[in-house]
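Dear H.,

Thanks for agreeing to be a second pair of eyes. The structure we're designing against is below in token form, covering all 454 positions.
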């Protein structure tokens, strides 16, 4: 197995251990290995190669060459930014992969056009490549609007546009953020012009109240699944806390507490979305906005498993090692996928991941700068009986680091840490996360002026 590593996706430590249990792993590292994982990676992998910058000019050729050199029987990535390159490399090599349609699940312009042709429910949209395009789209669509980078992830470069006079400033800021993200390694690795592609869409009104029995849930869910030999297999649903403006994800919770009929309707729409894209062999992550009177709108589908801790959460809650199962499938082994999406009744407890942002429960920025200190949180925040909180080291700042100021346009780029919580049920995860969000600005140490300046 050639595993192509880049930023984003499930934690590398989790992916490596599960892949190495099923195959000899050769790692092609397009991004630096997290320090907390680097040592283990060299022990788990038969080889670890970090290509020089000059070798990355033709990423598909690089992957193909490396795959042939190690005799790879499968090539896999869990990073949004490498999905298209790996899919094209698999096509060249004649190996199982997402297929030629992978770009439809990556470029939001192509994705929305495909769904529009299929008559699927989604917000009204326009593809935009220039500021003039955006002004023209703003005249055709109804405000408020959401400007998105077509190849971004983690809500990066999202801008809410409420009136015509905000169009030019939103365009400039989104392009700035995409350039900044590229410098941090959070950018498409294969399509050189991707930074200039955007989509703008009408903001639909979501409501969680018609879907969940208790308050506190966000108004969208994700359907986690896999496509095997062109057939979509839904695995389960994950719920959310409300997003932070504009639409930055704060927390994902597995399972989502939807009634069976509601879950069935959500899964049916996800199936239509995935089938329309024509994917072949890959993980999938489909986000769906929930509205009043049973309305739903497609947000996006990815040709890879959900990021953050979605995959470890599923393993913890449902006992499914999705990484290992996908590795087995790509290597031609028989895999028994769930016959239908698993439900809360089949869950053994619940798990959730919280993105730590310098924003309180009402969406307001913290008044003072703080220093990240997980031990202080573990000692001082009282969670529910049976709940266990941990920090994902490879996705978090080191203790003692000043927490970044939240930048709405930067999305997850300004996160301080990623925490994982396991609990007796999903309601408890939600309540504990609310407690944690409220407590963070009070229990974290204040940053000294010199630390902030640094």
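And this is the sequence the design step returned. I haven't edited it by hand at all.
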């Amino acid at each position: 197995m050639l595993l192509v590593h880049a930023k984003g996706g499930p934690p590398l430590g989790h992916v490596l251990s599960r892949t190495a249990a099923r195959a000899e792993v050769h790692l092609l590292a397009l991004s630096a290995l997290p320090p907390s994982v680097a040592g283990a990676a060299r022990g788990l992998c038969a080889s670890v190669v970090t290509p020089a910058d000059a070798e990355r000019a033709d990423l598909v050729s690089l992957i193909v060459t490396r795959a042939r050199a190690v005799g790879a029987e499968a090539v896999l990535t869990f990073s949004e930014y490498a999905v298209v390159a790996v899919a094209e490399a698999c096509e060249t090599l004649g190996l199982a992969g997402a297929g030629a349609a992978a770009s439809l699940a990556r470029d939001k312009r192509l994705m929305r056009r495909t769904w529009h042709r299929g008559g699927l429910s989604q917000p009204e949209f326009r593809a935009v490549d220039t500021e003039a395009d955006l002004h023209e789209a703003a005249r055709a669509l109804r405000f408020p609007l959401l400007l998105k980078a077509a190849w971004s992830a983690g809500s990066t470069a999202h801008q809410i546009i409420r009136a015509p006079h905000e169009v030019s400033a939103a365009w400039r800021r989104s392009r700035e953020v995409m350039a900044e993200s590229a410098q941090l390694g959070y950018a498409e690795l294969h399509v050189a012009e991707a930074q200039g592609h955007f989509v703008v869409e009408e903001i639909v009104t979501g409501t969680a109240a018609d879907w969940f029995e208790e308050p506190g849930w966000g108004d969208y869910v994700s359907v986690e699944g896999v496509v095997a030999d062109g057939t979509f297999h839904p695995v389960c649903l994950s719920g959310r806390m409300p997003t932070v403006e504009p639409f930055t994800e704060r927390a994902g919770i597995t399972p989502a507490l939807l009634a069976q009929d509601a879950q069935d309707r959500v899964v049916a729409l996800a199936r239509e979305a995935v089938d329309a894209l024509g994917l072949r062999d890959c993980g999938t992550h489909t986000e769906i906005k929930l509205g009043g009177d049973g309305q739903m709108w497609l947000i996006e589908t990815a040709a890879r498993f959900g990021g953050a801790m979605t995959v470890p959460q599923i393993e913890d809650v449902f006992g499914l090692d999705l990484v290992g199962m996908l590795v087995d499938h790509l290597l031609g082994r028989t895999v028994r996928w769930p016959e239908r999406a698993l439900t809360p009744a089949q869950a053994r407890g619940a798990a959730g991941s919280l993105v730590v942002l310098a924003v309180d429960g009402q969406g307001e920025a913290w008044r003072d700068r703080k220093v990240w200190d997980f031990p202080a949180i573990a000692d001082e925040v009282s969670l529910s009986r049976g709940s266990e909180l941990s920090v994902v080291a490879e996705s978090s700042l080191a203790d003692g680091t000043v927490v970044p100021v939240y930048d709405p346009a930067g999305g997850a780029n300004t996160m301080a840490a990623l925490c994982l919580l396991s609990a007796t049920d999903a309601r408890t995860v939600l309540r504990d996360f609310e407690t944690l969000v409220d407590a963070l600005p009070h229990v974290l140490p204040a940053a000294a002026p010199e630390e902030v300046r640094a």
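Two observations from my side: DSSP finds 13 helices and 16 strands in the chain. The longest helix spans residues 167-184.

Warmly,
E.
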